[in-house]
Write a structure and sequence with these properties.
Elements lengths: L4 E6 L2 E6 L10 H16 L5 E6 L3 E3 L10 H13 L4 E5 L2 E3 L2 H7 L2 E4 L4 E3 L13 H4 L5 H10 L5 H7 L4 E2 L3 H13 L3 H34 L2 H11 L9
Parallel strand pairs: 2-3, 3-5, 4-6, 5-7, 6-8, 7-9
Antiparallel strand pairs: 1-2
Length: 245
């Protein structure tokens, strides 16, 4: 089978690249499994000092693959893997982030995006809710500012994403923006990084422990609903859903 996650390493930084451009890097069952395995390998390797999660093509991640969606428990496991990994994980984004892609973005410890990036929580427009991805998103964002984009599904910019708390930095050259972050991680002691990350992610993991089962059940219920079937059909047929007025 063709690999869905590219892997390269340079000076202790492992770069994992989502490489399913035919589906705009949508989160299929296969992609979730492969990415989880790659992250597990990175967490066990003492030579990996940081992980950069990036993408090929013009889309970082289009959300769940509607034709081959991952099991909600598997998606929760992947997001928790990123949060719990003792090695810092940084998102490098030069394209679009939609729906479930925010789970990956928010689970990362830091994130940088270029000017080509666009963002949208599109779940409400296909009849579901940003349920599972809320596990890492809600603890790391401003809830009042986030409400606009959660409820309307409208697009927003990298500057908006910084204001919300979803991005660390945006710049014309995303690699220039990442360079000082990676340099700082290379100069930091691995043990100290792991324990400092544990301090930073404690609140996020509390949310996983408290809410994962409820939000997974909500996701499954909504995806099985009549409105979701109509919304996903309308999306695939490139038309407005029946409820649009």
């Amino acid at each position: 089978m063709t690999a869905l996650v590219g892997r390269t390493r340079a000076r202790g930084v492992e770069t994992l690249s989502l490489d399913s451009t035919a589906t705009r890097n949508a989160l299929s069952a296969a992609l979730v499994t492969e990415l989880d395995g790659a992250l597990t390998d990175c967490g066990k390797d003492p030579d990996v000092r940081a992980v950069v999660l990036t993408h090929t093509g013009t889309t970082f991640c289009a959300g769940a693959d509607l034709r081959d969606p991952p099991d909600p428990d598997a998606l929760v496991g992947l997001l928790r893997r990123i949060v719990e990994l003792p090695t810092p994980v940084l998102a490098r984004i030069t394209g679009h982030v939609r729906a479930g892609g925010f789970g990956l973005l928010a689970a990362c410890d830091m994130a940088a995006a270029g000017p080509e990036a666009t963002f949208a929580f599109t779940e409400v427009r296909i009849g579901v809710a940003p349920a599972v991805i809320s596990l890492p998103v809600l603890p790391r964002t401003d809830p009042r500012a986030l409400a606009r984009y959660y409820l309307t599904g409208e697009r927003f910019t990298p500057a908006d994403a910084v204001r919300l708390g979803l991005l660390t930095v945006t710049a014309d050259d995303v690699d220039d923006a990442l360079a000082p972050l990676l340099d700082g991680l290379r100069r930091s002691a691995p043990q100290a990084l792991a324990e400092t990350k544990r301090l930073l992610t404690a609140r996020v993991l509390e949310t996983f422990d408290r809410d994962a089962a409820e939000l997974t059940a909500l996701s499954a219920r909504l995806f099985a609903s009549a409105q979701a079937r109509e919304g996903m059909t309308a999306f695939l047929e490139r038309r407005d859903a029946a409820w649009v007025v």
